[in-house]
Structure formats: C-alpha cells, structure tokens
Amino acid sequence: MQLEEGKEKFIQAWGTLGSSWGINRTMAQVHALLLISPEALSTEDVMQELNVSRGNANMNLRALIDWGLISKELKPGERREFFVAEKDMWKVAKQVIRERRKRELEPMLRILEELRQVEGAKGDKETEAFTEAITNLHELSLKADKTLNTMLRADEHWFLSSFMKLMR
Amino acid sequence: MQLEEGKEKFIQAWGTLGSSWGINRTMAQVHALLLISPEALSTEDVMQELNVSRGNANMNLRALIDWGLISKELKPGERREFFVAEKDMWKVAKQVIRERRKRELEPMLRILEELRQVEGAKGDKETEAFTEAITNLHELSLKADKTLNTMLRADEHWFLSSFMKLMR
DNA sequence: TAAAACTTTCAATAACTATTGAAAGTATAG
DNA sequence: CTATACTTTCAATAGTTATTGAAAGTTTTA
C-alpha cells in the first residue's frame, strides 16, 4: 500500500472510531492527521489536507488543545501557529481517560450520591428497586474511579510490565 | 427527595451519559427505566413513562436486546412481551465492554495490521512517522485487547478482591 | 377462518450537530 | 500609526441522526 492511501485510510478510520465515542468526526481526523505528521502543521495545512473550512479547522484544533491532545508550537521567524500531537500513545490514552473521568465519571458520582437519598415507604417495591440499583451503580462507579486513578498515577513501565504480567 | 423526582433525574442523567458514549439518548433512557424497575415492563409502559412513540420504543428495546443488556420476559396468560434489564452492574459493565471490543477494537486492529504494510523510501520522514504511529497504536491496542479479554474472563470475585486489592 | 391483540417497519419529518465563510478581532512588522 | 498577516467568532445553512405514526406484518384466540 502507498503512503497516501494509508494516510487516508487511517484518518478515515480514526474519524469513524471517534464518532462512536461521542467525538466529532473532524476533531478525530485532525488528531489522526497530526499523529502521523512528522512536522508541526498550520491551520492552513489542516484545511488543505482534510478539505475543511477555516472555521472548522480552527474550532477543532482548539478543542484538541482543550483535551490536552495537541499543543501549539511556535516556529522562529514564523508568525502563524503550528500544531503538534502528543505521539506517545500511552500518554494519549491516559489523557483521554483523565478527561473523560473528569467530564463524565465525576459528575455521575455526584448525581448518584444525591440519588441515594431518595425516600419512600420501607416496604415499597419501587423505592427499594430504585435504591438498590443506585447503590450498586454507585459502588461500581467508585471502584472504577479508584482503578482509573491508580492507572493514571502509574507510569508506563508499571503498566507495561506489572499490570500486563498480571493480566497474562 | 421523592421517588418520582429521583427516577426522572436518573433517567435523564443516564441518557446524557449515553450520548457522550455514542449511544442514543432514548436507548440509554429505556435502559435506565428498566434498571430501576422492580417489574418487567411492556412496550406500552415504556412509551408512557418516557413519552416516546411506539416505533421509537420498539426500536430501542430491540437495540438493547441486541447489546445483551435487557431480555424479553413472558408472563403467563399475557400475550404482550415484557422486558427486564440485567441488574448486576458488573455484568452490565462486562457486557458493554464485550460488545464495544467486538464492534470497535477488533475492526480497528484489523485496519492497523493492514496499515503496517505501507511502503515508502527508507529515509522518507513522512513514511517513517506514519509507520511509527501505526506501530505504536497497534501495540497499545493489542495490549488493551488482552487486558480486556482477561477482565472479561475474570469473575466478579476476582475483580472485586484480587484486582481491587492490587489497585488499592 | 376471521377478528383481535400485539409487534415491526419505514417514509416523512423533526431535532440536533457540524460546517461554512464572511466579518470582526488581534497581534506583529515596518 | 496603519497595513498586513493571521486567528476567532458566529449566523446561516448543510448534513446527520432520531422520532413519529400510520400501515403492514404476525401471532393468538375464539
């Protein structure tokens, strides 16, 4: 397979994967493009490579910075901004986990804690089923939270050796 | 807080969470409703509780069955179908992991394996950056796949005791 | 077999999300 | 200071995905 074909396939695949994770297609594609690019790219470069408008490119580059997946890079003697992606995939994965934990797991935990206080007659089936579901979900979420935290604190070496050894 | 208010908040929250995981809102809401329901519910019940049309209720109930998150239940002397959700949250989590692995990770692995064969001049920066990104991503994906597999094979006891102990 | 009770389908449409591109904003260079 | 090179915003619009509801399909009952 030739490089151009491979690039296109990868950008396409990464975009599709993004969609099923609630990440907009263009954002995932910009990320893919930067992941495989040896040089930092300008907004203009992104617009050209992906055939998107200036506004779209700009908005998704900013969103990626917001997620901590890419960063601005200034080239001496250049006025425009260039962008590079973090290339270490384990760091990328950790960053995504960190952000989603903050954006989704933490708010959900707060809601579940609130919902544990639903009151109702002691023998009421409805209330009991509700309370039990919430309690179980809360426990699982807490465990997931702790596990993720530990993973995030671990360095790559730990993940690759100890954890993987345990996992076979 | 009263039961009705709690139910609504939970259904709403679960729906929102679903959206950010690429799951359609109604599907997540139907799931939430069944999770907290002590009895099996009919299509009609779902339509009423969530204010959605028959077609919508039917389609999302089928999708949930497809995901293995709910099942049909037949009541003696009743002609309609009723639906119950799996209530054990660890089983639910495992099932979601299993399905997403099948639907997303496996196809991605296949694409990455294909993309590792991109050819190019040996000193070409573009090709080298591409190959390296693909190789790293492939390695990480393989590791994730193995880890998930091991988790899925493990029973709850293992997860809750050994693994959680390790994780503190 | 026919009517009733229920489920499924699907074309039309509504609702939502992403994208464009021109205009406004900002920073740098001369 | 002001012209230029760039970035950001945002209202309009395109594109996508979800929802409706009536019609078709299926199974059960009598």
Measured on Cα atoms, how large is the radius of gyration of chain A? Answer: 21 Å
- SSE run of chain A: HHEHHEEHHH
Classified in CATH, the superfamily of the largest domain in chain A is Winged helix-like DNA-binding domain superfamily/Winged helix DNA-binding domain
CATH-derived topology of the largest domain in chain A: Arc Repressor Mutant, subunit A
What's the mean pLDDT score of chain A? 91
Low-pLDDT stretches of chain A: 164-168
Regarding CATH, which class of the largest domain in chain A? Mainly Alpha
Percentage of helical residues of chain A?
Answer: 55-70%
CATH architectural group of the largest domain in chain A: Orthogonal Bundle
Could you tell me the strand content of chain A as a percent range? 5-15%
